[in-house]
Amino acid sequence: MDRLDVPYYLASKECLENVEITHVFKNYFYTIGLYYGDGATIRIGNKTYELTRGSLLTIGPGVSCQWLKTNFPLNDTLLFYDDIFVNNFSNSFFYSLEFFCPDEQSVIQLSDKQFEEMQQLFQTLRMVVDKPDVLCGILYSILIITQKHFWRLHRGNKIELSDKEHTAVKFRELVAKNFANHKDVAFYSQQLNISSKYLSELLVDQTGMSAKKWIEFHVMQEAKYLLSFKDQSVKEVAFQLGYTDTSHFSRAFRNYDGQLPTEFKNAVCNLSPSLN
């Protein structure tokens, strides 16, 4: 998909009503969506979510998704790049948004009052969709409110992130975008303007895993997701993940999971025929 001419696109529930997307797709944007339907199932990364009216979806770039047992359901969806914040808000704010990290929870269930509040904000977005500067302000409000809901549910009402937590979040988002092409720690430390040693020490302190382990985690979680589909061969999965030699991929997978990708694929496909 080509890059948008503007750093955002607002898709309303009406324009998505008859869209049929049931295959696996890669999310290339930051995505936040408000679900209006009575029930749907979506797989985001390796997690499956049951949606009900008032479910708020938050998906970062680089994550594989699939609507299960349903066509694209009724929801308002805003797709945007981080460019939208370059001239408007602090990057430190944007990279504090943990809910866009692929290993976090991607669905927040809103109360009736919270759902009504979020509906009003999405309605305002539609009114100012041709005014980027104004839209940025509304998006900022949506993200602030979403962060508060996320922290309330998953962080014990945290108020703000420390500098180290900001760096950890930024790293995790960079890995989600780039793990297929960049599996070396040096690439990420250069992007963050810190040394590879300090980055790994910081991540171990904040998350319990080194930078190398985080990169490996993302690569192998994506590998398991892709291998669960019968129409994806091991060779194709290896290529998608940036391996030019299938044997190198197989060796890395076995070192991580204790079995060859063919063994994993056969076991999962036999257990989950509905995903194929």
TrEMBL record:
Keywords: DNA-binding, Transcription, Transcription regulation. One of its GO terms (molecular function) is DNA-binding transcription factor activity. The keyword DNA-binding applies. Residues 169-267 form the HTH araC/xylS-type domain. InterPro entries: Homeodomain-like_sf, HTH_AraC, Tscrpt_reg_AraC-type_HTH. The keyword Translocase does not apply. This is AraC-type DNA-binding protein. The lineage of its organism: Bacteria, Pseudomonadati, Bacteroidota, Flavobacteriia, Flavobacteriales.
